[in-house]
Amino acid sequence: MVIASALLVFSGSVCAEEVTSAFTVIIDPAHGGSDEGVVLSRGVTEKEVTVDIARLIRRDLEKTGKYHVVLTRDSDRDTSIFERRSAVKKGKPALFISIHVNAGFGSDASGYEIYVAGREMPPNENAGAIAGDMMRTETINESVRFARIVQRNLNEVFPREGRGIRSAPAAILDGLAVPGVVLELGFATNAANRKKVQEEEAGDAIARQVSASIREYFAGSGE
Ligand SMILES: [Zn+2]
Predict the structure, then answer these.
(1) Which of 29, 39, 217, 223 places its Cα 20 to 30 Å from the Cα of 47?
(2) What's the 38 CA to ligand 1 centre distance in angstroms?
(3) How far is the CA of 83 from the centre of ligand 1 (A)?
(4) From the CA of 31, how far away is ligand 1's center (Å)?
(5) Is 184 within 8 Å of 100 (Cβ atoms)?
């Protein structure tokens, strides 16, 4: 259904081959509804910034005609972790990106952080478990490959403010069978970052760098 409508929209500008081989990417704007996330200023909250950036990333990717982009929420509504994870399990995207704005660590903390699921492996007892672990390792390696690309590209928006790639338990990522990252974009607790993430231009620049990173990731995936 989606592919068919994409063909109608893009038939004049790109070849059908590109459309039918579209990569599915799920973007997860964190928070929503009664869960506002961190408060920025003038009544602006994290839940609005995350969905704005997610929509801009979708716009950028869909322009290429090579991506099928799904948002876990496209309105201001309560969205549970369970619902978000179910969307990933059902949608089986080639890449999953959850978007937050950071807060804390004092007012000096600024920039962006990228989280990937932890590397802890359960003990292997049989071939099935080993195969499962190999798949998990591959998924984490691909997550790290994407994280490195986005870490480099976001430096354009937050020069010298990269806080690195962190491997940590994250309820939204753990155990998912697809490559995925959590992006923490800017700090609500830092005056300059707080201002930046609310500016239309900066939101646009962040979205452009994330979508460029997604294109770079798939260009290097050999698919
Ligand atoms: Zn958040």
Answers:
(1) 217
(2) 7
(3) 16
(4) 6
(5) yes
Cα 128 to middle of ligand 1, angstroms: 36
Q: How many A from CA of 47 to the centre of ligand 1?
A: 8
Ligand 1 centre from 185 Cα, in Å? 10
Handedness of CA 77, 168, 210, 42 (dihedral sign): positive
CA-wise closest residue to 82 among 172, 12, 176, 158: 172
Residue 12 lies in a domain: no
Q: Kindly state the DSSP code that residue 53 receives in the 8-state scheme.
A: H
Task: Report pTM.
Answer: 0.85
Number of domains the chain is built from: 1
pLDDT of 179 > 70? The answer is yes
Distance, CA of 10 to CA of 223 (rounded, Å): 21
**Do the bridges between strand 162-167 and strand 180-187 make them parallel or antiparallel, or are there none, so unpaired?**
unpaired
Structural domain of 23:
19-219
Residue 30 alpha carbon to ligand 1 centre in Å: 6
| 81-109 pLDDT per residue, tens | 999 999 999 999 999 999 999 999 899 99
Say if 155 falls within a structural domain. Answer: yes
Give a yes or no: residue 196 inside a domain. yes
